[in-house]
Amino acid sequence: MPPTGSDPARMNRKKGDKGFESPRPYKLTHQVVCINNINFQRKSVVGFVELTIFPTVANLNRIKLNSKQCRIYRVRINDLEAAFIYNDPTLEVCHSESKQRNLNYFSNAYAAAVSAVDPDAGNGELCIKVPSELWKHVDELKVLKIHINFSLDQPKGGLHFVVPSVEGSMAERGAHVFSCGYQNSTRFWFPCVDSYSELCTWKLEFTVDAAMVAVSNGDLVETVYTHDMRKKTFHYMLTIPTSASNISLAIGPFEILVDPYMHEVTHFCLPQLLPLLKHTTSYLHEVFEFYEEILTCRYPYSCFKTVFIDEAYVEVAAYASMSIFSTNLLHSAMIIDETPLTRRCLAQSLAQQFFGCFISRMSWSDEWVLKGISGYIYGLWMKKTFGVNEYRHWIKEELDKIVAYELKTGGVLLHPIFGGGKEKDNPAPHPHFSIKHPHTLSWEYYTMFQCKAHLVMRLIENRISMEFMLQVFNKLLSLASTASSQKFQSHMWSQMLVSTSGFLKSISNVSGKDIQPLIKQWVDQSGVVKFYGSFAFNRKRNVLELEIKQDYTSPGTQKYVGPLKVTVQELDGSFNHTLQIEENSLKHDIPCHSKSRRNKKKKIPLMNGEEVDMDLSAMDADSPLLWIRIDPDMAVLRKVDSEQADFMWQYQLRYERDVVAQQEAISALERFPTPASRLALTDVLEQEQCFYRVRMAACFCLAKIANSMVSTWTGPPAMKSLFTRMFCCKTCPNIVKTNNFMSFQSYFLQKTMPVAMALLRDVHNLCPKEVLTFILDLIKYNDNRKNKFSDNYYRAEMIDALANSVTPAVSVNNEVRTLDNLNPDVRLILEEITRFLNMEKLLPSYRHTITVSCLRAIRVLQKNGHVPSDPSLFKSYAEYGHFVDIRIAALEAVVDYTKVDRSYEELQWLLTMVQNDPVPYVRHKILNMLTKNPPFTKSMESPLCNEALVDQLWKLMNSGTSHDWRLRCGAVDLYFTLFGLSRPSCLPLPELGLVLNLKEKKAVLNPTIIPEAIAGNQEAAVNPSSHTQLVGFQNPFSSSQDEEEIDMDTVHDSQAFISHHLNMLERPSTPGLSKYRPANSRSALIPQHSAGCDGTPTTKPQWNMELPRKGTGIHVSVSHLEGKEQPPLEMSVHAAAAAPLSVFGKEPASSKHSEHHHHHHHEHKKKKKKHKHKHKHKHRRDGRERGRGPLAFPSPAGGRSARSPSLSD
Fold it and tell me: Which helix (H) or strand (E) holds 178?
């Protein structure tokens, strides 16, 4: 069953090519994963995999696979032993000897390391040599079966073991393990082709203790007990072609629940949580029904499994036919706040089953289509479930997030194209990480990327209509399901991969509309639009003169040209106008319909057809305008600042029926603290029909206005009388009624109002006494006995209210704060907090919300100088073993303390935790919080900024986080926040190195000490269009020509391995081990494999560079080469300028792979041209002597010390 008609795979995938051309010289059709031993004590896994592949090129002699941190024992191909090399350049991105510390250098080296093992470029960490006995077999393109035995010991990523340290057997302790990771991370737990574009069918077998359950993808075919009944093996079959990246596993003593509404759906949770599981998942079948209905397509897999586990990597992770959730999403029927959040998680994971798991992507640049579609249909589900208001509020929230992020950081690019010359038009917006690969992205960038993707899908829907949009999705799904059922036609499977061009073609076929301009604007370039709107009413002409300006020069912005909708509410009704925004037109005249009329009392028609009476006394007598809205449907990714009079905002808040408009009005009214604004806000608070989120926002706005009007404010504090009227006893207004949260709208208002009231301040900038008493009374009289819902969130918000009421302490002649001289009000607050904390120890609340609020409140008291600032309480709450929310809240306080008190000790404590904490999510969060609230930044002097810290963070990001992409990118973000792109300012300058330039006979200062110099010529660094010239990571295998001629394609795409000679494959991969056992992946061998690791992903030799970098300089400064190397092709630089390209391809590896200088400079000067082919064999003989020879200069190409062992030894 060889794939028919499949073209020999080539590297060059042209844009717009039909179909999918694999970057790999083979097609994977089936993979077996068998894990036959899992040890929870040792946290180890032993197993094997078997891959069935069909070569697609005749002379396939080596096969590259992905595998990280697995120890590989032996590899057999069709039962013949095969030699292999294992090399992972991402373990240590820059070699430890390198004194380089600038981030530009690191980012380029990291991007190169990642692409050197990227399966989408035909690379991998594991290179297997096809035994020569099989060459004839391969030339006939016959099937190969690759059998790999491997083990994993205490994995640091990919598989996460949770082993509680309590009494009992593993099952009784609730020990479990699950796969996790960011993007394609399956290579962390078994060897595979870890690419979303390589689909195959799967057979998965897991042998576990009899008390455990193994959950994996596909159908459970059978469960077989061993003879002694101690263990059982779960056999899963996944017949739908799936990529390795979508394979997952969860093993634990799970309780099992078959969904009562849909028997093909099964839910799993940890022991004793079954009641919560029942309630939480009872809703899932409705989500299924919704998606199947709008997509007019059945759920693609034969079953679906949800597994709820502890210490989750992310809250929701979707894999083929199963999703892994955090156990913290489970809740009972008494919980209000968590319910919508958990349902949203379930819906999100199901949307990704269709687009993301079933339909995969061709390459990373097509990721936006999958994230966009799954996010878009999730939005439709939200609209149906929670209503249009919630949906529009969500869209506005997401839009505000992406706009703020792009303006702050310079843009998110949805469709990065890595062709020749494309980067010129679209300079990469992100200086400190590469966006060409998912594993180099900052986590925050990736979340914003997903957010932008679904917003852009919504823009496409606006353009072509929802009906066509759903037809396009249906078409993609039906093509994919047809393809997935072709068992033996694996070349058909590429129909299950989506690409940007295929998606766009599908849109134009279905809708007949050209959406190219829209794609060009939002997908092919980054940036958002910034509008400034202002207007004047021309009474004579009865027109509205609207001026719309754009700012397209700030970072993260772009120029918008195209239609823009403006809605004008006049006395006669609401009118929509579409303006054409052009290059330079700013002013737009919009004719008005109604003459201003004061006298005739008529109802005013609104947008939704409602007619209302308005009090028009506030408005301008001459103009019929009530309010104006620019781009009301959010049909552009934009930020709008529009100016209108305060009365217009007030009308808009009261009478506009769109929640987004009301929220805009509320934020605008903060600038107009007048009695009229106060009245408008109070009216909204009292309106039952008004959307609850708008009313919540109005509370905070009212508090701000009251503070601005503090001298003229009359009556009781803002919102107090309102709250009393709504929630307190009629007879005794300071006692709150017993809780009844049946009406969720009033519940949300009831818990928000006191939090906003606590922000009120009197003339002395203190919280009014009566407000504090009022909040303390709410806590005192809180009675939840008759309520069917839990009040834990409500009580937590009351503590937040107490914290909001705290104002800075007034210290009298620097007396030391003790509990005796506490301000009496603060004392009351502290007593409440302490009481709550003690109560929590006895009766913990759901998700410990109250502890979390108490910890935050204590930090507020510390910051305001009421209690001594001390991190020890928070450090004890941050220890492993507490609930994750508590830990995060405590860590946040420690991060803040580190910043305020500039404490080096706490910063060290945090960084130690980043390295050693058992929970990946917590490690990630600490880095994230330090980045958001940094102890210092690159622009300020700080006692914390010292060389040791730089080295520590460098080490963390260089080698300490190689097991978790997300963590490494977090460390890079932090490094960038603290030190910026160039060499950190606190480092001493490197010693001045001299460079002797023999050609010019003069000595020049080592260019290393110009920290910025490197930044300029980095972009040329990795240019895939010329593999052959590239060095460093892009090393072609160099074969010794006399042995065998490798076809050029293999040379091109085998950049990753830096073996200077194919014979290497014949020898044992580690001196002491047999040739089939590579050293442990951590072994010291690895860094030496990769001579290129240390060099920058070197620029193509720049012949016109300034002299000190020209080929023949001899560096005298040893330790500070700092990676500003000369182009490692230096030996044949001059010859090469004229030589045709092919010379490079066949050029032996001497100059590239050397860690020592392979030939003496002087000799080289005389016989420059003659030498070119001679040193081919020479370096094999004398590599060793050379290393100890008199002229042992460290090679600029290797950038390491002369004595480091090299492979040629």
Answer: strand 176-179
pLDDT of residue 1075: 36
Closest C-alpha to 957, from 946, 967, 944: 967
User: What local confidence, expressed as pLDDT, does residue 994 receive?
Assistant: 45
Q: Give the whole-angstrom CA distance, residue 200 versus residue 187.
A: 16
Beta-carbon neighbour count of residue 1042 at 10 Å?
A: 8
Cα atoms in the 13 Å half-sphere on the side-chain side of 1096? 29
Q: Is residue 1044 scored above 90 in pLDDT?
A: no
d(CA 300, CA 736): 53
What is the per-residue pLDDT for 809?
Answer: 87
- Written as six digits, the tokens of 226 are 């061993």
Nearest to 1047 by CA among 20, 138, 125: 138
**Is there a contact between 327 and 252 (Cβ–Cβ < 8 Å)?**
no
What CA–CA distance (Å, rounded) separates 74 from 336? Answer: 54
Please tell me the distance from the alpha carbon of residue 417 to that of residue 428, in angstroms, as a whole number: 11
Distances in whole angstroms, Cα of residue 1043 to Cα of each of 56, 137, 437, 1177: 24, 20, 36, 12
**Is residue 870 over pLDDT 50?**
yes
pLDDT attached to residue 429:
56
pTM of the model: 0.83
Whole-angstrom CA distances from 992 to 497, 794, 846, 1142 are 54, 64, 61, 39
Lowest mean pLDDT among 712-726, 818-832, 1073-1087: 1073-1087
370-421+432-523 topology per CATH: Neutral Protease; domain 2 (1.10.390)
What's the CATH superfamily of 26-88+125-253? tricorn interacting facor f3 domain (2.60.40.1730)
pLDDT tens profile 56-92? 999 899 999 999 999 999 999 999 999 999 999 999 9
* Tokens matching residue 457: 């899908």
Cα distances (angstroms) measured from residue 913 to each of 463, 828, 910, 926 = 49, 35, 5, 8
Mean pLDDT calculated for residue range 1201-1208: 37
Alpha carbon separation from 971 to 438, 479, 903, 957, 1070 (Å, rounded)? 16, 42, 20, 5, 32
pLDDT of residue 989: 74
Interaxial angle between packed helices 824-842 and 849-863, expressed in degrees from 0 to 180 and rounded to the nearest 10 = 150
Residue type, 576: N
pLDDT at 1202: 36
Domains of the chain, by residue range, sit at 26-88+125-253, 271-358, 370-421+432-523, 536-636, 714-868
Taking the C-alpha atoms of residue 1126 and residue 1004, their distance in angstroms, rounded to an integer, is 14
Tell me if 1058 sits within 8 A of 123, measured CB to CB: no
Evaluate if residue 1174 carries a pLDDT over 70: no
Q: How far apart are CA 192 and CA 68, in angstroms?
A: 10
Count H helices and E strands in the chain, helices first: 38, 34
pLDDT given at position 752: 97
- Candidates 879, 884, 881, 883; CA nearest to 894 is 879
The token pair at 933 is 């609230």
Cβ–Cβ under 8 Å, residues 407 and 488: no
Query: Measured in whole angstroms, how far is the alpha carbon of residue 187 from the centre of its chain?
Result: 19
Whose CA is closest to 474, among 368, 372, 354, 365? 354
DSSP 195-259: -TT-EEEEEEEEEEETT-EEEESSEEEEEEE-TTSSEEEEEEEEEEEEEGGG--EEEE--EEEE-
**Burial label, 564 (beta-carbon count in 10 A; 0-12, 13-18, 19+):** buried
First to last CA, the chain: 45
Closest CA to 1127 of 1091, 1097, 1172, 1161: 1097
**Separation between Cα atoms, residue 681 and residue 646, nearest integer Å:** 13
- Distance (Å, rounded) from C-alpha 1120 to C-alpha 1116? 10
pLDDT tens column, 547-584: 999 998 889 999 999 999 999 999 889 999 999 998 76
